Structure formats: C-alpha cells, structure tokens
Amino acid sequence: MITPNTMSEPAAAPSAPAAAQAPVGGTGLPPSRSLSPNPFIVAAILLVIGLIGFGGYRASEYQGMQTLRTDAGHRLDLFAAAVDGIVNRYAHIPATIQLNEEVLGVMQRKPGPASIVAANRFLQRLNGHIGSIAIFVVNERGIVIASSNWNDPDNSFVGEDLSFRTYFLEGLAGRVGRHFAIGITRGEPGYFVSHPIRQGNRVVGVAVIKISLAQLESAWDLLGAPALIADGNGVVILSSVPEWRYTALSPLPIDTRVEIKMNRLYNDGPIGDFPVSVDSDPGHEGQIVHMNLRAPSSSSPRPRSHAEVAGSYLVHGRGLKDVGWRLLIFSDLRPVRAQAFGHGALAAIATGFVLLLLLVVAQRRRIIRQKLEAKELLVQANAQLESKVARRTKALTDTNARLRKEVAERQQAEQTLRAAQNELVQAAKLAVLGQLAAGITHELAQPLGAMRTLSGNAVEFMKRGNLATVEQNLGIIARLADQMGRIITPLKTFARKSPAIPAPTDVAHAVGAALFLLDQRLSKSGVTVDNRCEAEQAIAWCDQNRLEQVLINLIRNAADAMADSEHKTLTIEATPGADGSLELSIADTGCGLPDAGALFEPFFTTKPAGEGLGLGLAISRDIVREFGGDLHAENRPEGGARFILNLPAAPKEQP
Ligand code: ADP
Q1: Above 60 in pLDDT, residue 655?
Q2: Percent of the chain at pLDDT above 90?
Q3: Which class for 70: exposed (0-12), middle (13-18), buried (19 or more C-beta within 10 A)?
Q4: Which of 33, 37, 110, 543 is in the most buried spot, having the most CB atoms within 10 Å?
C-alpha cells in the first residue's frame, strides 16, 4: 500500500511556499499558484484604503465644522447679547435729556451763561452717574452748547461744530440717530446715540450720548477666536485683531466713501482693505477664507502680541439689529483639519488592517484549498500508481510463471536431449566396438589357441608325471590370460556407459588408449602413426572416456581416407593454443575433405551404405563443445586433411 505523503505546513513566506509539486506517477499536480500579491489587488486595496481614508477625513471635517458652527453660533449669541447690553443700556438717556429745564434753557436763541453752566453741570452729573464718555447737547445749528466735559479744557466739546455728524442730522430731522464714530476732539471711538430736543413740535436741538465701547474689548475673550464688528458701511470698527480696525470688508462704493468723508465718521483716518475678501453675511454655513492671521500668543495680555500664521478660517456672522452692525467670528479650521486628518488616517489604518486580515484569511483559505487539491490529486495519483503496479505485478507474475514453465520445459527437453545424446554417444561407441570386434577377435584368438594347445600338453605331461613341464605350461597360460585381460580392459573402459564428467585429462594418455584400440586396424591398413604427444605435457579439462571416443572417430576416419593413399601417415600433435587452451591436431595424408561446409552435419557421409552413418563428426563436435572446446577441419596444403581439437586447459593445481 502506498500511503500519500501528509502535506507539511508551508513555510511562512509565500516563498516557499507551497513549492511546485513534482508530477507523481505521470499525474501532474497543479503548479502551486504564486503567493506573491497580485499588483492589481494591491492597487485596488491601496485605492480602497485611500478612498476610505479620504472619506473619513471628509466626514470628520464635516462633523468638526458642524461642531464649529454650533460653537461659533453660541459664542456669537453671547457676544451679541453683550454688545446689545452695552449699547442699549444708555440708549434712552438722550430722550430724557429734553425733560431737563436747564437743557431746555440753553436751547433758547441766546442762553445766559448761568443757564449754560447749569446745563453743563447737569450733563456732567448725569455723565458721571451713568459712566458714559460724554453727554452733550447741540443747538439747531450744530454747535455744542453744553457738554458733560465742559470744564476739561483739552477735551471739552463745547463750541464744537457737529453739524456734519449724522447723529446730529438724524436728531434734527426728529429721529433717533445711532452710529459709531471716532471723536474729533480726542479721536476716541464711541457709539453715539442722539435724540431730538423739542419745544412743542419744533426741534430746537439734539441731545447726544457717547457710549464707550471699551468694555467690548474685554468681551472678545468670550469668543475665544479672532472676531470683528463691522458697522453698516462694512468698515471694521472693533476687532480682537488691532490691524483689522478701520479696514473695509469689501471695497467701498464711492458714495459711501464721500459720506464717510463728509461725516468724518472715522476722523478722516485712512480706510484700508481687509486682508481677504469676506462676505459680511456668510450665512449659516459660514465662509471659508485663507489668510495669514497674526495669531495672538495665548498667554500674553492685551494688547496681544501676534505671530504670522497662515491658515484657513471659517467665518460666521451675526447681525446686531439695533445698531445695524455685523459681528464676524473667525474660527480656526486647523484643529478641525488636524483632527479630521487623524480620523482619516485612523480610518485608513483600520481599513488597511481589516483588508490585510481579509487578505490573510483569503490567502490561508487558498493555501488550504490548494493543499486539499494537491492531496486529492496525490491520492488519485497513488490510486493510479497502485492499480498500475498491480497490473504490472500481475503481468510480471504471469510472465514469470510462463518463463518458469518454459524453463522447466526446456530443462526437460535438455534432459531428454542429453539422454538422447548420451544414448547416441553410447550407440556410436557400440558401433565403433562392433567395427573393432573383428580385430579384437583376431587379437584374442591367437592367445586363446595357444592356451588350448598348452593346456592339452599340460594334461599329457601330468599323466607322464613331468610336473616341471606342466608348471612351465601353466605359467605361460597365466601370462597369456593376462595379455588377453590387457586387450579386454580398454574395451571395457571404452564401452562403459558413463556420464561426461570433466576432470584434468592427460591428452597423451587418451591418444595412447585410442591408438591401442585401433592398433589392429591401423597396422592392417599399413598406416604409419607419428604420435608426437608426450605424457603430462598437455592436460585438458574434459572427460577422458569421451575424448577417447572423439579420437577413435577421427583416427578411424583418417585411416578410411588414407585407404587408397600411397603414403599413409597419421600425425598426432598437441600444442598450446593462443588463448591458453590446448590444440590437438590429427593430420592424415588421405584424400582430403569432400565438403568442409556439410562435414559436421548429421548423416553426412561419403562412405558406402553399411559402412558409414554420417554421425561420427556431429557427435564428436557436440562432445568437444560440451567441455567448452571446439572442433574444426581443414585440408592440408600438401594433401590430406587435418582435424583440430581445441580443448580447455585444466586449471593449474595450487602448490
Ligand atoms: P562416417 O564416418 O560414418 O561417414 P563421419 O561423420 O565420421 O561419418 O564422417 C563424415 C564424412 O566426412 C565422411 O563420410 C568423409 O567423407 C568425411 N571425412 C571424415 N574424415 C575425413 C578425413 N580424414 N579425410 C577425408 N574425408 C573425411
């Protein structure tokens, strides 16, 4: 069973991540997708972070501005109430002045000095009591007749011509006059309220009170931000920023400029331009302006020291109804924007974190999915591999069984062949023996006849009592029996049916045995044997009995071939071969080989029927090859044939 490898945890870096899987069993696992972030996804994430950061910034800015508006509204309401209190507290005073007899007295055409002093004293007392800057009365020509500061030689208004003043003209017209102006005597700014002085239905003069606005200076702190008050002309008359005073919020039209000049509202001082264009009524939403504001240092007392600070301000305004002024407050937007920036950054960071978290979760899920896919593919690949292995194993088992059967059959066939060969060899031996039988019979017949004669003679000599001769004859008979035994023993050895067992075999010994068996035949044919083999010179690794059989076959064939030759010489020689084997040559002076090609084929014979079977050479070659040697034949140049036996040399014995 092949078990799938359990997937190991991938390294943290997408580096290694899941490394590319090598194909398994021919089934390619999908190449692991790269864990490096997709640039489009990164760009999209950055875009989302940017958008959310920007959205957070804008939302926080909006919220901050809303708060700022509400806050500014409250402050403006407070401040407006303060201004209203200061301005209107004494606004009714001029109306009551005409009730005073002394004042009415000086309104006559030629008032006496005593009545003027009385009026002056009254006005001085009243002013002292109220705490205003000054209270004075003007006759119908615009000349100050009596004033609370009558006895202050430097500041006394008495005798001043105020006919150009709006508040005088308004009073003279029977209306209440109110406006801001800078005093022409001391240049002190103040709020003037005038009221006509009537005698009957006729306006005989104008009573005026100049209210100090110095109290408002301390009220700027209520606002906690730069602020200003612009009068009906759009000219800044009061401001927490001193530089803004007497500047016009928007360019003044020419007729307004002329009127200001004529009325000397601002004591003929220059009217500058406000640093930026500001709408005197910015509405509920307010107006955002950018300017360099010399911001007051927080701790310093008034007059404030300033430092140039560039920034954006949200301007809110409030109309002061009774006086016709506008109060503007400049709320610094930097803290709001700083906070908005902080919130935007926080939103971006939080979004980035959440997206990162989502990305990590998605990545993790993707890795797990890939792992599962890879595992599944691995399991499939294993299953395929297993089935393939099982199929191949079965095929191999079948082939193995078939081969075993074939081997067994071949072994069986080989055994049968070997048995047949052995039988054939034995049959060939017996055939040779049959052919040798005549010669052997002749060899045995002679001693046998002699033994017969000697034994008959021995009986006769015994009857005669000549025991010495009997003993002599019996001795001769015994020697003859030994001689017969020597003839029969090689025959017995040759005829023995024995398996071929290789062993060190002296070639000269085998040659001698073969020549001994064929001795009768060779001498009868007149063959001269030139045996050049010497004992123990050539030791071959083979079976002696089989070697003898081969040699008998070759020598017999040579004798046959030389039957008609004039010179019959058989030369047998053993020499060492080139490759360490032995070379045994049997050469004759016979007729030569008929057809070297078919020579070793079974049943090839040129001999007449009954004399040759054509099996001798085929069997001989088989025998030699079985020992690892070979047999081949050639025609000798000088005539006759030569058979060469190559035999493996016996391994040298270890000393
Ligand atoms: P057989 O002797 O029964 O014919 P062999 O196989 O021994 O069978 O020999 C086959 C043939 O080879 C012989 O018939 C002969 O023609 C030829 N032959 C064998 N030895 C010799 C030789 N020394 N000289 C010439 N021819 C030979």
Answers
A1: no
A2: 36
A3: exposed
A4: 543
Does 378 reside within a domain? no
Residue 515 has pLDDT above 80, yes or no: yes
Instruction: Answer yes or no: is 491 within a domain.
Output: no
Secondary structure of 66-127 in HEC code, one letter for each residue = HHHHHHHHHHHHHHHHHHHHHHHHCCCHHHHHCCCHHHHHHCCCCCCHHHHHHHHHHHHHHH
Q: Pick the atom of ligand 1 nearest to 613's CA.
A: 3
Single residue among 313, 334, 355 that ends a domain in this structure: 334
Q: Is residue 536 part of a domain?
A: yes
Q: Which one of 273, 300, 334 terminates a domain?
A: 334
Which mutation among 554, 560, 638, 644 tests ligand 1's pocket best, with the greatest number of atoms within 8 A of CB?
560
- Same domain, yes or no, for 605 and 507? yes
CATH of residue 634's domain is 3.30.565.10
Both 97 and 185 in one domain: the answer is: yes
* pLDDT value at residue 596: 58
What residue numbers bound the domain in which 315 lies? 216-253+264-334
Print burial letters for 392-414: b (CB count within 10 Å at least 16), e (below 16): eeeeeeeeeeeeeeeeeeeeeee
Question: Can you give the pLDDT at residue 567?
Answer: 94
* Residue 22: predicted pLDDT: 42
Axis crossing angle, helix 39-89 with helix 334-463, rounded to the nearest 10: 160
Q: Which amino acid, 286? A: G
Q: What pLDDT, in 10s, does the model give residues 177-220?
A: 888 887 777 777 888 899 999 888 889 899 999 988 887 777 77
Residues with CB under 6 Å of ligand 1 are 553, 557-558, 561, 588, 590-594, 599, 604-607, 612-617, 641
- Distance from Cα 578 to the centre of ligand 1, integer Å: 28
Centre of ligand 1 from the C-alpha of residue 557, in Å: 5
72 located within any domain: no
**Nearest alpha carbon, ligand 1 atom 23:** 558
Residues 226, 160 within the same domain? no
**pLDDT tens digits for range 20-49:** 344 444 444 455 555 566 788 888 888 999
Number of domains in the chain: 3
Same domain, residue pair 223 and 142: no
Inter-CA distances, 33 with 5, 437, 580, Å: 20, 96, 70
State pTM to two decimals: 0.49
For residues 232 and 202, membership in a common domain is answered with no
Residue type, 57: Y
178 and 193 Cβ atoms separated by less than 8 Å = yes
pLDDT tens-place string over residues 528-552: 999 999 998 899 999 998 999 999 9
- What is the whole-number distance in angstroms between the Cα of residue 340 and the centre of ligand 1? 125
CB atoms within 10 A of CB 464: 10
Q: What CATH code is carried by the domain that includes residue 108?
A: 3.30.450.20
Shared domain for 532 and 595, answered yes or no, is: yes
Tell me the mean pLDDT in the region 398-418: 91
Is the pLDDT reported for residue 573 higher than 90? Answer: yes
Residue 209 CA to residue 94 CA, distance in Å, equals 6
pLDDT at 34: 55
89/193 Cα distance (integer angstroms): 11
